[in-house]
Design goal:
- The complex is a heterodimer of chains A (about 260) and B (about 280).
- Chain A has helices at about 1-25, 45-50, 55-85, 90-105, 105-120, 125-145, 150-165, 170-195, 200-205, 215-220, 225-255; strands at about 30, 40.
- Chain A has a two-stranded antiparallel sheet.
- Chain A contains 11 helices and 2 strands.
- In chain A, about 45% of the residues are buried.
- With about 260 residues, chain A is an all-alpha fold.
- By secondary structure, chain B is mostly helical.
- Helix content of chain B is about 75%, strand content about 0%.
- Chain B has helices at about 1-35, 45-50, 55-85, 95-100, 110-120, 125-130, 150-175, 180-185, 190-220, 225-230, 235-245, 255-284.
- The radius of gyration of chain B is 23 Å and the shape is globular.
- Classes of the chains: A mainly alpha (about 260), B mainly alpha (about 280).
- The interface between A and B is large, with 70 and 80 residues.
Chain lengths: ~260, ~280
């Protein structure tokens, strides 16, 4: 029984790790002819081009990073502010339901419905437009996520601080933020990942002009360039893997 | 005074980033579908709605999307329950607790790309079958992407969603006294299978029902995976809408908006249902 369980667990590990191994192997390859299981030629060429030649992929990586960091920071900050109001509102459930709608709709369909306004406002095909469009998805998520933070004990702590003469700013600085630290970090990571993974909305609002990593993966797949598609995929996976590890190692443990 | 200012800012944020975009987007889609706005439209008409349902394409697309979402969710929920019950503790500590998170680091587009490389005619699985002598040439391997049964799409969605349900069920088992309930049932004479089918699984399903509905909604709108791994017919709703909007035939655009309006209404109804059910679960 114990052996069976160990074998099953090993298979589960393989299932979770195999995609990463395959994508990394392909990103270091030049050709992969059927029926070989492993690529014939391994090379550092693609990674060197990405790191040192300053080719388009590096630019796409930094585009994605800029957009995601900005979206994550802004939506975390605004979501945290708005979530308090919703959490303590007498119509909390209705407000939460309204907040859920933009987040639940398919981003690509939502983007198609909003494209007209982005065009009129001169926000289509540029970085600010994509950031605003992604905020429309990430902000509701952040608000929903932080609503669970504002429970009765947080309210009690704030009330005690106010009774003892603390200003609202001081209460936030010395009580709320320290208590919310791990929540804020996890919320930031989640919003970063939402933005980092986004393809449909970015493509529709950006008209493919702002080249993010997800858009490049699609382009490489369209060109049947599986080695560059694998490299872009690895670049897309790396930050979330690091964030998930940090989240699990530090934030989750800290919360416990 | 300061509290009032803070509340006004919060209200304004919600209006600017959530309510206005939603109303503007859905309003535009609705007006376009009825011919009230749009370059080629000439005033109120029901023609676009009639044209959208003139053949079975739209209806078929909705049935296909719903079916695909149900199959994908059923496989994730059942495997998630099994893994949480079978490996529960092993996935909460050590290397297992990190590994199970890994698929969550995959964007849909990357998962779709990997499964294309894994399940296609010339993919990794086909190569393994060849090396094992199960097939003699590349054509002997049944293509599992862009296929009739949407196996590639289901496999990719399963890969991305499974960890979420495993973690959800592990947390429900830990927090909702499932083990105590099972113990109580056993001490009252219930058999192992009775405990599993009459206590554990119903309790887990009941607690996770709002999340299941929410993931069903997310799956209805999935785009990248069916775009890469699906066939040209039938298409999922989001792929169909984007195709109608971006095709050279401008007459198809209003029909695209018709489908978008129906999809949005479906999402709204399901979301309200999910909220009501979460209320019921919380009360229980």
């Amino acid at each position: 029984m114990h052996k069976k369980r160990t074998i099953s667990l090993f298979l589960l590990v393989i299932y979770c790790v195999l995609p990463i191994l395959v994508l990394f192997a392909l990103s270091f390859s030049l050709n992969w002819v059927y029926p070989n299981i492993l690529p014939q030629t391994f090379t550092l060429r693609h990674w060197k081009e990405f790191l040192f030649d300053g080719n388009g992929l590096q630019q796409s990586f930094f585009n994605s990073l800029t957009i995601s960091l900005f979206v994550a920071f802004t939506s975390t900050l605004l979501g945290f502010i708005c979530s308090k109001w919703i959490a303590y509102h007498k119509r909390r459930r209705l407000l939460l339901l309204v907040t859920y709608f933009p987040f639940a709709l398919s981003p690509v369909i939502f983007a198609i419905c909003l494209k007209f306004y982005f065009l009129k406002a001169g926000l289509a095909g540029n970085l600010p437009g994509i950031i605003i469009a992604q905020l429309i998805i990430a902000f509701p998520y952040a608000t929903i996520f932080f609503t669970s933070f504002w429970n009765k004990s947080i309210k009690d702590y704030s009330n005690i601080a106010s009774t003892l003469g603390s200003s609202p700013f001081n209460s936030y600085l010395k009580i709320i933020f320290p208590l919310a630290k791990s929540f804020l970090l996890t919320g930031f990571f989640q919003c970063f990942i939402i933005s980092w993974f986004e393809y449909g909305l970015t493509n529709i609002i950006g008209y493919g002009k702002v080249q993010t990593l997800t858009i490049r993966v699609f382009q490489f797949i369209g060109e049947a360039n599986i080695f560059y598609a694998a490299l872009s995929s690895c670049l897309l996976i790396l930050p979330p893997v690091i964030l998930l590890w940090v989240n699990k190692k530090f934030v989750v443990h800290q919360t416990r | 005074m300061k509290i009032k200012t803070s509340n006004s800012i919060s209200f304004l944020l919600l209006v600017v980033f959530a309510i206005i975009p939603l109303l503007l987007g859905l309003g535009y889609a609705l007006l376009y579908s009825f011919g009230i706005v749009g370059v080629l439209n000439h005033g109120f008409t029901l023609q676009n709605w009639e044209a959208a349902f003139a053949n079975n394409e739209v209806l078929y697309s909705f049935f296909y999307t719903v079916g695909l979402s149900l199959v994908s969710l059923f496989s994730c929920v059942s495997t998630g329950i099994f893994l949480a019950l079978y490996f529960g503790k092993k996935l909460q500590k050590g290397i297992g607790s990190y590994i199970i998170y890994l698929p969550m680091a995959f964007p849909s587009v990357v998962a779709a790309f990997f499964f294309f490389q894994f399940l296609s005619n010339a993919g990794l699985l086909s190569r393994l079958c060849y090396k094992l002598g199960l097939i003699k040439s590349v054509t002997d391997f049944t293509n599992l992407v862009n296929d009739q049964y949407s196996i590639g799409i289901i496999a990719a969605q399963f890969f991305l969603t499974l960890p979420i349900f495993v973690l959800l069920y592990i947390s429900i088992i830990a927090n909702e006294n499932i083990e105590r309930l099972s113990l109580l049932a056993t001490s009252l004479g219930a058999r192992k299978s009775q405990v599993l089918w009459r206590i554990t699984i119903p309790a887990l399903l009941k607690k996770s029902f709002p999340t299941i509905v929410l993931y069903f909604i997310f799956k209805l709108g999935t785009y990248e995976i069916p775009l890469l791994l699906g066939r040209s017919s039938p298409e999922t709703v989001s792929v169909l809408i984007v195709r109608k909007m971006q095709r050279f035939n401008l007459m198809d655009i209003p029909q695209g908006y018709v489908v978008a309006v129906i999809y949005a209404l479906l999402v709204i109804v399901l979301l309200i249902f999910s909220f009501k059910s979460s209320h019921t679960v919380a009360d229980a």
